[in-house]
Amino acid sequence: MPVTKDIRYLSSDYQDPSPEQPVRYPPVLKLIRFFFGTLGYLFPKPMAKLAYRFFSTPRIRAHHKTSDELLESARLFEFMYGKQLLKGYEWGYGGRTILLVHGWESRGTALRTFVPPLLEKGYRVVAFDGPAHGNSDGKRTNLPHFGGAVRAIINQIGGVHGIITHSFGGASTAFALSNLDPSIKVEKLVLIGVPDKMKTVLNNAMQTLKVPPPAAREFFRFIEQKVKFPVQHADTSRAHISGSVGKALIVHDETDAIVAIQEARSIFEAWENASMLITKGYGHYRLMKNPDLIREVADFIDAG
Hints:
The structure is a single chain. The chain is an alpha/beta fold. The chain has helices spanning 29-42, 44-55, 69-73, 115-120, 143-156, 168-180, 198-209, 213-227, 261-270, 291-302; strands at 7-9, 75-81, 84-91, 97-101, 124-128, 162-166, 186-192, 245-253, 274-279. It is 37% helix and 18% strand. Strand 2 and strand 3 form a beta hairpin. The longest helix has 15 residues, at 213-227.
């Protein structure tokens, strides 16, 4: 029987008074852009490699300015991923485990809003700081590398019932389940504000750095040589997750200025086992503070 494709809009009166945080670029970006804009024409290959270093290096290490009860109650642990020591966080003692996977320039505990309802439903919840993020080792990372860390922690904690992801973390998780270890089985997968087309992500990076066409072309060649596959192979919509994921929920906000909602729609249309939940007015980050959305996600994880 064909799978029914379900699209719903979140009904919520929740108002978040805090504005969506704009993307802030360091003042030195103007100098970097001038650098690429001139030397990128003269020396495209070296400039392409330098552009990759910028692209794969998080600009900030996310940290908490203040603590709270959830942060204080987390049980801390460490695990190895290659030669890197990554930091993990754990709550609850339930028999089934939910993994939280954060986005770019964030950290595992940024998704802790989902912890209380999952604990109430009897789950154990685990999060981690990805490579080059939070308190974990590393200076640079990329999608396949971050996906490898997702695979590593799933094996470390003995498998998971469900995974809740945000943004870059969702694309990395889908890549891990589809390409790195298809033997991993997950009942529920949630993608919140997740990009689809990797070419769009890379083009946006080239525009931000003002990399001229000759160096941009070399940048794409360098990326594909490094990861050993065409960039479109990493598109989230191309991930073959039907054998590893029971059901997926695609969550996206119509006003997301970081990842366009069409990215979410293309993932939803490509995945037969996916449903979609659309919000409006919460952007890329604030939707994870919405208690109505949090409850919807927790109910999806627990359904069935």
